[in-house]
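[job 4471] stage=fold_predict status=RUNNING
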Amino acid sequence: MKNRFRVILSLSLGVAVTLLASLAMASLATSPESAAEAKAPNAEAATSAVGQAAPTEGAPSSEVAVEQSRRQAEEAAIMGKPMPEGGVVWGEYEGTVSKVIDADTLIINDIRFKLLGVNAPDRTRSSKTDECYSDRSAKYLEEQVLGQVVTYSYDRWQGKRDRRGVKHVYLFFDGRLINTELIEKGFAFAQRDRIYGGREHFRALEKQAYLRNIGLWHSCPVECDRSDECWTRDW
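[job 4471] inference complete, writing structure tokens
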């Protein structure tokens, strides 16, 4: 009888211990700390995936941002902002003006240059073939820069030479852009047959000179073709 009681008691104790162990394991499995640990690997994997993903849209790299800013500046200049600005001007060189051929062509350091964006009446060797107002325009340019040390720059859209090898430049003297000054004062037309930064600004200055009826607009018959390219003719 005693032996049977001991067996039953030991079995009961064994069952009780087993039940307590099961309850303890269940409690650990459902505790907040265990749940967090169980989720941690998945969270790390998600974080790793985000880290390897492409950058958020709308946040370009620094190189892309710089390139976008440069293009926007050049486009702004072309749409009519005052020149020179927006990264359109390329390089800065100095030289002495030794000769003025006409109001859009001159010699600097023994090199022939054309003033970009400027279309002036041609002055030839014979006064009989000179275009109207060519002499006045050329003499104005001579008074400003002949014998002077000037600064000139190229246009990024044009480069240093056109396909014929002609060098087109922006001419600076005494803090002034001579190209626009010639157009604004009625000594020349704005050039239309090529792309350059500030072309619309040059044309706006030409329109102002026309409306003010100054310079060649006042003194000469002016003809324009379908492309809006203009020139003077004799009376």
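[job 4471] summary: The CA atoms of residues 116 and 123 lie 18 Å apart.
[job 4471] exit 0
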